[in-house]
Design brief:
single chain; 164 residues; alpha/beta; Rossmann fold; five-stranded mixed β-sheet; 6 helices; elongated
Length: 164
């Protein structure tokens, strides 16, 4: 997945879908084969999910087959439901990219634990704040990297900065 772009963050505020017209589709994940999905599947069933996809893979693993199946299964008007945000994304950037992709397709997103629902204005606002913070952090990292490179060049033997 590509990192979210500036227009992705702005798109999150658009009211799509304004009203749920489709079904709730659940996605659950545990990190190891020894862990049980029961609690997550129960929460998704109680939330009214008509179909649940589940992976037993680390969140660091990009090859989450059931997640990709769930994303493929979803149609405009549907809502992807997860027990908690950490079950879906490997990082805030990954989470924003996935939810932005859903939003562009007219698909909502709900996280039960955080009570976050992008089909509501408040839920879209929270996600917009997440995206803005992620962009800010990326810019700080780039700025710090550039400052570090400049300092290293200045310390290098024979650099123009040292000869001044």
């Amino acid at each position: 997945m590509q990192p979210p772009q500036a227009d992705d963050a702005a798109d999150l505020l658009a009211p799509v879908p304004a009203v749920r017209t489709g079904g709730l589709v659940g996605y659950a994940r545990v990190s190891t084969k020894g862990q049980l999905l029961d609690r997550q599947i129960h929460a998704l069933t109680e939330a009214g999910c008509i179909r649940i996809f589940a992976d037993k893979k680390s969140g660091k693993n990009a090859e989450r087959e059931e997640l990709w199946k769930a994303l493929d299964f979803l149609r405009a008007g549907d809502t992807l439901v997860v027990p908690s945000l950490d079950r879906l994304g490997r990082s805030i950037q990954d989470l924003i990219a996935i939810v932005s992709g859903l939003h562009k397709r007219g698909i909502g997103f709900t996280s039960l634990h955080e009570a976050l629902d992008t089909t509501t204005p408040g839920g879209r606002l929270v996600f917009h704040v997440f995206a803005a913070l992620a962009e800010f952090i990326r810019e700080l990292i780039v700025q710090g990297t550039n400052e570090g490179l400049d300092a290293a060049r200045a310390r290098a033997p024979g650099s123009a900065a040292r000869r001044r």
